[in-house]
Write a structure and sequence with these properties.
The protein is of the alpha/beta class. It has helices at about 20-30, 70-85, 90-95, 140-155, 195-205, 245-260, 300-310, 335-340, 340-350, 355-370, 380-385, 405-410, 420-425, 435, 450, 470-475, 480-485, 495-510, and strands at about 10, 45-55, 60-65, 100, 105-110, 125, 135-140, 155-160, 165-175, 180-185, 210-215, 260-265, 325, 375-380, 395-400, 415-420, 455-460.
Length: about 525
């Protein structure tokens, strides 16, 4: 528990022309050309100016807001604990001639807590050097959360003086993400991850301003997800104790929302679905050939419909997973089981279907279901490679095989997400952080309109060789390199300039109990080579 006095106060004041003042501040910052010294912030803000002064953050420091948002209230408590780990020496404040920062005021234009792809994450942060309050302005609580993270990274404990300090003041920051969708895929099928571990993953994501947990919850190997509409599905779990209850799912989604993170659930169909057969064998081709799901029987579509209706609540923004993007997988569909199972062969013959037609049929059926429930279907790249512009216009294509496919996706008018496996797969331990950092989503896409169809990207933590014992040092710090690519301006792309900041950020993660691997080791999740300074490894 933080020893810094925790005080935050709601105040009520007239906030006229909030947006106009924000626009004026942004314009001033965009005109600024001089920044002083190195900026230990990750990801780097869009625009900032700073000075050379030092502020003391005293034990009496308060956070002030007129917002009634419970999310903001909880976030303030969280960041007070993160910032003020060491007990300040009050006598030092009395001896010091350094200016003190009395408070931080948070001003929101709206208390609307709706969280979707379109949510505005902009914030403005000013930290004066004249002894007056610092100010975070945001259009909603989610922008304010990012502002709090940035503010917390500026507060550093100075051990010789026993004081919490902010250097290089005054600060003026105008910040917003370059891409709306900045994700981390977490695979909990190949190895089960507990709810507590998932929550720590969510915590770690907020420090790098990632905003989407792509929960690859089930796959061929296991189905740990409790469905109340289809209760036998979790018979496919690894063990009776490696499961997520209905309440677990709700808790994870709510915890993520309070951290400003959307949870995009994935059910990878029809190909990665052998685990579904444990509970519902009739939806699989046969006992010795379990996937892809059987496209020829109504049971398959009944199970899918009931499951999708349950998780969506049957309408936009509702259900267990209110996120409007629903990932349906669709990759690596080997149709051998269809062409070697008699009743499926008969069905295809009756409908004059090839195996590719059957693949398209089940994809279309799934799209129609989730669209009727107010969701946008997301599919892996193979679905686009097979069916191209014949897909529903609401489809979003998740590129993983070939970066160049993203240009084809947006040229065809579809929205796209980038996760090319050569550089953004975290289980590829040989890929250095520099390659994560330099992976540019707009590469090969020069048309401005087509660029707007690239909604963002994700780093992928596939779970074949990862469980709670090595998860965090496999994800971090390389995921942070991609996080800056997705947040900061495109021209922020110098790996030599970024490396000292990334090393600093890795040490910040470790200080916050997130076990991030050294930056300078040869492969991801390598241990430190020997004794040494955190900031030099």
């Amino acid at each position: 528990v933080a020893t810094q006095t925790f005080r935050w106060v709601r105040v009520h004041q007239h906030q006229t022309d909030f947006m106009e003042r924000g626009r004026q501040l942004l314009a001033l910052l965009c005109a600024a050309v001089a920044c002083v010294g190195a900026v230990n912030l990750w990801p780097q803000p869009q625009q900032w100016s700073n000075g050379t002064g030092t502020l003391v953050v005293p034990p009496t420091f308060t956070v002030i807001t007129d917002s009634t948002s419970k999310i903001l209230e909880n976030a303030i408590a969280k960041y007070m604990n993160l910032m003020f780990v060491h007990e300040p020496w009050e006598a030092a404040d009395k001896r010091s001639a350094v200016v003190q920062l009395p408070s931080l005021e948070i001003l929101l234009n709206s208390d609307d807590e709706t969280l979707q792809l379109e949510t505005d994450e902009t914030y403005w942060l000013t930290i004066p050097v004249d002894g007056s309050a610092a100010i975070i302005k945001a259009n909603n609580v989610y922008g304010a959360l990012h502002g709090l993270e940035t503010f917390s990274q500026l507060v550093v404990y100075d051990f010789p003086s026993h004081q919490n300090q902010i250097s290089n003041a005054p600060w003026s920051i105008a910040d917003y993400p370059r891409f709306q969708h900045r994700g981390l895929l977490l695979d909990t099928s190949r190895h089960f991850e507990s709810v507590q571990v998932i929550k720590r993953v969510i915590d770690s994501m907020t420090y790098a301003k990632l905003n989407v947990l792509h929960w690859h919850v089930v796959d061929s190997q296991s189905f740990p997800f409790e469905s109340q509409s289809e209760p036998n599905l979790w018979n496919g779990a690894w063990s009776p104790s490696e499961r997520y209850t209905h309440q677990d799912l709700l808790n994870v989604v709510q915890y993520a929302k309070e951290s400003g993170i959307r949870v995009m659930i994935e059910f990878d169909i029809p190909g990665h679905a052998a685990s579904w057969c444990a509970g519902y064998p009739t939806i699989c081709p046969r006992a010795d050939c379990k996937e892809p799901l059987d496209p020829s029987v109504q049971d398959t579509y009944n199970v899918l419909h009931n499951l999708f209706q349950e998780i969506t609540g049957g309408s936009q923004g509702k259900g267990i997973f209110p996120e409007n993007l629903l990932h349906l997988g669709g990759d690596e569909v080997d149709t051998t089981c269809w062409s070697t199972t008699q009743h499926i062969e008969d069905w295809m013959s009756q409908n004059n279907f090839t195996t590719d037609d059957a693949y398209m049929y089940i994809v279309e059926q799934a799209h129609d279901m989730v669209s009727s429930f107010g969701r946008y279907p997301v599919n892996w790249e193979e679905v686009f490679n097979h069916f191209g512009s014949s897909l529903d216009s609401r489809s979003i294509i998740h590129v993983w095989l070939d970066h160049a496919t993203l240009a084809k996706v947006v040229a065809a008018g579809y929205r796209g997400i980038l996760s090319n496996n050569d550089v953004w797969y975290l289980d590829h331990l040989w890929v250095p952080w520099q390659d994560f950092y330099m992976n540019e989503p707009y590469e090969g896409i020069d048309d401005a309109k087509q660029q707007t169809l690239v909604i963002g990207g994700e780093v992928c933590m596939w779970g074949e060789t990862v469980d709670a014992s090595d998860l965090f040092n496999t994800v971090w710090p390389r995921a942070a390199a991609a996080a800056e690519r997705l947040w900061s301006p495109r021209e922020v792309n110098d790996t030599e300039a970024a490396q000292p900041r990334l090393m600093w950020f890795r040490c910040l993660l470790n200080a916050r109990d997130i076990g991030a691997a050294p930056v300078l080791t040869a492969e991801g999740r390598d241990a430190p080579p020997g004794p040494g300074d955190c900031y030099a490894q």
